[in-house]
Amino acid sequence: MIHLGQVNTLEILRESEHGAYLIDNEDNQVLLPNRYVPQEFKIYDKLDVFVYLDNDERPVATTDMPYIMKDGFALLRCNQVTEYGAFLDWGLVKELFCPFQEQAFKMKPGGWYLVHCYLDEKSERLVASSKTMRFLDNRELTVAEFDEVDLIVSHPSDIGMNVIVNKKHIGLIYKDQIFKDLSIGDRLKGIVKKVRLVIN
Known about the structure:
By secondary structure, the chain is mainly beta. It folds into 3 domains: about 55 residues, CATH 2.40.50.140; about 60 residues, CATH 2.40.50.140; about 60 residues, CATH 2.40.50. The strands form 3 sheets. Strands 3-2-1-4-5 form a 5-stranded antiparallel beta sheet, with no helix packed on it. A hairpin with a 3-residue loop joins strand 6 and strand 7. It starts with 6 loop residues before the first strand and ends in a 9-residue tail after the last strand.
């Protein structure tokens, strides 16, 4: 199966005037446009490609890797705002769309925003949301005390800095545990000192 918003390892099946067609182990095909086709390759060579929808809403592959992938978080720059929503630079030719209803604060061109990327089930498009908290859950924790974790700085609070833990949970670094300047979107490693379960 070819997965939108993720890196797929696919085989080169055949050439065409528009590029090379890649295939997975279930015979699903996707086009790799000419600009991304390696200068030298053999049929059935394997390539790691990112797959998303092009401007015509068709799946397309690229060897460029975006700044954010499906289910991930990243700090992205807003390139433009239209009547439909904001369009963010995520490192690919087609910008990442963030609808107005998914904006925690009204986005402005040139601004930087911490967003989550997800696959919208209705439109089957990859979209962004700056309402990051709704994608985090502390009811079923997957970390324990003294675990090493991946952190993304989310937003400041009166007692420290809120962080996203392993792309799943929300955590807090207390002020007396911060030993360098931190900015929203920074990525760092951390050690879990205390676990607090949230019960609904």
